[in-house]
TrEMBL record, chains A, B:
Keywords, alphabetical: DNA-binding, Transcription, Transcription regulation
Gene3D superfamilies: 3.40.50.2300, lambda repressor-like DNA-binding domains
HTH cro/C1-type domain sequence ranges: 3-46
Domain HTH lacI-type, chain residue ranges per copy: 2-56
Alphabetized GO MF terms: DNA binding
Identification of the protein by name: LacI family DNA-binding transcriptional regulator
One matching Pfam family: LacI
SMART domains the record matches: HTH_LACI
Length: 330, 330
């Protein structure tokens, strides 16, 4: 393990420049940056407070917000796994920071985090690029963009949405509504693409309603649709279980029953989903395992045992069959 | 603003001892501790990184876990309010730390938090006492224990449970089930007391079922009760909305409808509660305002404008009347 001074001497680059690289500053040439990062890795450089005081490693977890289920469960699992390795961790919401990307960087660098796990699917998070440019190890969850040069953990959203459609299709459904999520969210875009592709291939009569991953979007989209068009479909695929819960109320309010009149399938397998009435058939997303794997990848990176190439871990999803989908005549 | 050295000189106590007080160590006499704390306040002592670098203040928020709704919504609101004041914040789950009270202390002190907001209702959190003994400003949410010497924000759990019972009573219900929460949780204990007191006073035929604030406890307690006793009641008061959601499934599975056969009322007003079918009548708990108030109290303490005496802010709750309670013959 070498100090900055020693590394500076060895590679003939000033400490100030090395610091700029560590802190992700932009006024460093790409060539210099690569040289510095290589040297930091080679000489197992560790931030001073770790080397000096043997404090616990500290990991910052970035989530879009704390209000849903998805990122809470993933970050809970990350924290649990990190604590097994003796790491400290904390969670920060990006939505609190809005466009203040400088603040999040400042916070992370000034608090000297040893690693970062990014759990956010929006594609316009520019601060993530800065983080990736820095010397701090980063693992991304739910971001399978091939152009991100970090280890990632996620599910195959395309395949998962495809099997949900296939499940409805195999139960005889040919007129299907899909309640979508915001399209700037990576997973929403990909799931929608799968739904469209499937429908084209199997000649499903598909209608797409705009949703938002929230209870309200599920409720209002179905309510409006039923008011305008009546029940000209036999099944609904909701982008997530929250939308499905909201949609359920709209279905009941319009006087239909589930699954006798309308079959529904969700996505996620939220904690409450098996307590809904009828219990919700859904695609299980392995959030616990996503968190565990992300934590393990990061620990490897921080402790210098990480792979030389970036790794992309895709975890399996599965249909959880309950009682909200009925077989209909084909 | 004075440095430790200056304060040490002025009050004639060594820097080492002052540091021990700041870090909540126990090997300091009560007299010395008080003297030091008074001096720190008087001379507006600030941790070195704040004084030196003008970093943002950092607040640690302690919650039992990230998985429910209650503490997530409160901490989201705390973080939003703190960010308006230019503060940074992070969230830590106590359940990850188990009995490792030393670790949480070490983490907080080593990361140099400027203030702490404790959102946890278990009465056996011994580390909280240590935090309170330290010089770091602390605000507690959901802990109205009169023996805690810090500012607190909460609701009147007794009154809130009492008015829920009164609501059912006024609708004609005289045979009522109460699904409780774990009794080591402060709010559960107090709500249960109110339910018992009300029932005695108004001669309600009360039965108490053991629950756990979770979907499962609501489901299994009602399921078992109905299997054993049948429907010998007309209404259920669930300790929270999650229990009510779980209980709903047990009611439907047994072939009863809500509210025609069984009326139910929850507590919290969770985000999904208005999307349940029927929409759930419940006691609204002002989590957003609880978080905001806690953040404001802490900011005042950190910036030295806090009250000399401890403050206890009790926020109002209210019944949100939806469609899960029916009027019955008295």
């Amino acid at each position: 393990m070498a100090t900055l001074r020693e590394i500076s001497k060895k590679i003939g680059i000033s400490i100030a420049t090395i610091s700029r690289v560590i802190n992700g500053a932009e006024n460093v040439s790409e060539e210099t940056r690569k040289k510095v990062l290589k040297a930091l890795q080679e000489y197992h450089y560790q931030p001073p407070q770790v080397a000096r005081k043997k404090l616990h490693y500290l990991v910052g977890i970035i989530v879009p917000n704390l209000l849903g289920n998805h990122y809470n469960m993933i970050s809970e699992s990350i924290e649990l796994e990190l604590s097994k390795h003796g790491y400290d961790s904390f969670v920060t919401s990006t939505h609190l920071l809005l466009n203040k990307e400088i603040e999040i960087l400042e916070q992370f660098f000034s608090r000297r985090v040893d690693g970062i796990i990014i759990c956010t699917t929006k594609n316009d998070d520019k601060h993530i690029e800065k983080l990736i440019r820095s010397a701090i190890p980063v693992v991304a969850v739910d971001r399978n963009d091939s152009d991100i040069n970090v280890d990632t953990v996620g599910i195959d959203n395309y395949h998962s949405a495809y099997i949900a459609m296939k499940y409805l299709y195999n139960k005889g459904h040919r007129d299907i509504l899909f309640v979508s999520g915001e399209r700037e969210v990576y997973s929403a875009k990909v799931r929608e693409k799968a739904v469209i592709d499937f429908s084209k291939k199997y000649e499903v009569n598909l209608k797409i309603l705009e949703g938002d991953f929230q209870f309200e979007g599920g409720y209002s989209s179905i309510k409006k649709y039923l008011e305008k068009n009546g029940k000209d479909f036999s099944a609904i695929f909701f982008i997530n279980d929250q939308s499905a819960l909201g949609g359920t109320r709209a279905i009941y309010e319009a006087g239909y029953s589930i699954p006798d009149d309308i079959s529904i399938i969700g996505f996620d397998n939220d904690k409450y989903s098996k307590y809904l009435y009828p219990p919700l058939t859904t695609v299980h997303q392995p959030r616990k395992e996503m968190g565990e794997n992300a934590a393990k990848l990061l620990v490897e990176r921080i402790e210098g045992n990480g792979s030389k190439v970036k790794r992309k871990i895709i975890l399996p999803t599965e249909i959880i069959e309950r009682n909200s989908v009925k077989e209909v005549k084909k």
